[in-house]
Design brief:
By secondary structure, the protein is of the alpha/beta class. 39% of the residues lie in helices and 19% in strands. The chain contains ten helices and ten strands. It has a five-stranded mixed β-sheet with strand order 3-2-1-4-5. A five-stranded mixed β-sheet has the order 8-7-6-9-10, with helices on both faces. Strand 7 and strand 8 form a beta hairpin. Helix 2 packs parallel to helix 3. It is globular. The structure holds 5'-O-[(R)-(carboxyoxy)(hydroxy)phosphoryl]adenosine and zinc ion (ZN). The site of 5'-O-[(R)-(carboxyoxy)(hydroxy)phosphoryl]adenosine has 20 residues, from helix 5 and helix 6.
């Protein structure tokens, strides 16, 4: 028999949980045909943080151009798509609603199934992008502007939450401390650049909850306050030393709880995603942990650490498990534990 090779399976994924509007076309075998992201950094910069109402309105303006660009760059027609996927939790409610309404309209107009995805799980699934080797089962950490979560993952959509932050997320702490140091928004990358020229041992900032071996939770608000007090006591402090010492404290907390989770679960793989996973000091500490414990550390490719829609490829796992969403499905904002 002759014939055409089977057509590549393709889906469209949308992301709008916070302040990035994104769309991607991804194939079942991990090919990213397009990944388009519109950031809103300049809209939120004057507030040194994301303003939910502004974010939702900007998603409304950005979605159609982002969607059009994602389809054009992929060269794919809607008729070739198998499904429309969208992140429905957790995140800012207004932002999530714009994404879900857009995805529902497309699914209805194109007569495709809708797939609802969890943004945190998608951040971890980013570790599978551009990688051939298996990622799951694994201990997984999402460390971003809104979340600091540890999971035990038996499979890509089979998870138990081990712990999470009880106050600020690690990325939020980076952003707040960066603002104290008069760095531009979003502060994480700027603080990391400043820290590269500082001494991480110059100040001994607290490592909250690190010594507590009974829980996998994190707390960064006391650390943030310690930096504030240090700057008040010593207004002429070397800012690079402050940045490096703060970053070292965050990295110690993150690594310590990963190590605890690996010990308790007995897993030999650690998957890490989310915006703060782009941080070089953290990535280096993870590499050292891998060598020290003889485990495999899988970090999402840098471009897929911060919010994007390509990580919505996790929708394939739901689709293949028959897990599609109804057009009546809703969003879940805030923190989902
Ligand atoms: O994953 P993401 O794009 O959005 C959320 O889901 O929250 O993460 C954004 C966060 C911001 O707090 C940003 O400052 C932080 O990730 N971030 C970094 C770095 N790059 C981004 N933090 C530290 N070092 C970096 N290189
Ligand atoms: Zn995120």
């Amino acid at each position: 028999m002759t014939g055409q090779p089977p057509a590549e399976r393709l889906l469209l994924a949308l992301e709008s949980t916070c302040d990035e509007t994104a769309a991607a076309v991804v194939s079942r075998d991990g090919r990213i045909l397009s990944s388009v992201i519109a950031t809103q950094d300049d809209l939120h910069a004057e507030f040194s943080g994301v303003v939910p109402e502004i974010a939702a309105r900007a998603h409304l303006e950005n979605f159609l151009p982002v969607l059009r660009a994602a389809l054009e760059r992929s060269g794919v027609q809607p008729s070739q798509l198998e499904a429309v996927a969208v992140a429905t939790q957790p995140g800012l409610v207004g932002s999530l609603l714009v994404g879900l309404a857009t995805a529902k309209a497309l699914a209805l107009a194109w007569d495709k199934p809708l797939v609802a995805i969890d943004h945190l799980h998608a951040h971890i699934y980013a570790c599978t992008l551009e990688r051939q080797s298996p990622v799951f089962p694994a201990v997984a950490m999402v460390v971003s502007g809104g979340h600091t979560h540890l999971f035990d993952c038996r499979g890509p959509i089979d998870w138990t939450t081990l712990g999470c932050t009880i106050d600020d997320a690690a990325g939020e702490a980076f952003d707040k401390v960066a603002a104290m140091l008069d760095l531009p928004f979003p502060g994480g990358p700027a603080l990391a650049r400043l820290a590269a020229g500082g001494d991480p041992a110059a100040y001994k900032f607290p490592r909250p909850l690190l010594a507590d071996r009974q829980r996998f939770d994190f707390s960064f608000s006391g650390l943030k306050t310690a930096v504030r007090y240090q700057l008040q006591r010593e207004p002429d402090a070397d800012r690079a030393d402050i940045a490096a010492s703060f970053q070292a404290a965050v990295v110690d907390c993150l690594i310590g709880k990963c190590e605890l989770a690996l010990a308790v679960t007995g897993r030999d793989r650690l998957a890490v995603g989310g915006g703060v996973a782009a941080n070089m000091a953290f990535r280096e500490a993870l590499e050292h942990l891998a060598v020290r414990l003889g485990i495999e550390v899988l970090i999402a490719p840098k471009v897929y650490c911060t919010d994007n829609a390509a990580m919505g490829a996790i929708a394939w796992e739901h689709l293949d498990a028959g897990d599609t969403a109804s057009l009546a499905c809703e969003v879940t904002g805030g923190l989902v534990r």
